[in-house]
């Protein structure tokens, strides 16, 4: 039996770490050495992709949590669908912002993370 975690377990570990202020920076350990991370308006690839991703998120909102609707799993691909809620950097609460995250996981590490959400549509962030 392999000690490599299942793709969904890796995706769930990413969510857990990102939700914890003290562990957020450690979520980079779940990625391969040179991952690709895309989200509306930005794309990060290479050795510093995760750090650049966190820096990009910082001015967007003070905090955000995800409510899961469903997971879709197919081999090394894991899709999480649900909604975001939280507080933006203007101090305004938001909720019900739809998201879809697609993870490509190999050998227990995230190779690619594609994030789609309606933060712009909901007025949480500016273009």
From TrEMBL:
Record domain SnoaL-like: where: 12-112
InterPro entries: NTF2-like_dom_sf, SnoaL-like
Protein's name in the database: SnoaL-like domain-containing protein
């Amino acid at each position: 039996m392999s000690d490599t975690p299942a793709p969904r377990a890796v995706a769930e570990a990413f969510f857990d770490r990102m939700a914890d202020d003290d562990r957020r920076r450690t979520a980079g350990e779940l990625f391969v050495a040179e991952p690709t991370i895309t989200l509306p308006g930005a794309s990060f690839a290479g050795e510093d992709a995760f750090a650049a991703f966190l820096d990009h998120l910082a001015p967007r909102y003070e905090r955000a949590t995800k409510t899961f609707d469903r997971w879709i799993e197919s081999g090394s691909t894991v899709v999480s669908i649900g909604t975001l809620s939280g507080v933006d950097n203007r101090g305004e609460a938001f909720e019900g912002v739809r998201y879809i995250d697609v993870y490509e996981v190999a050998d227990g590490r995230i190779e690619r993370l594609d994030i789609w959400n309606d933060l712009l549509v909901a007025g949480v962030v500016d273009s």
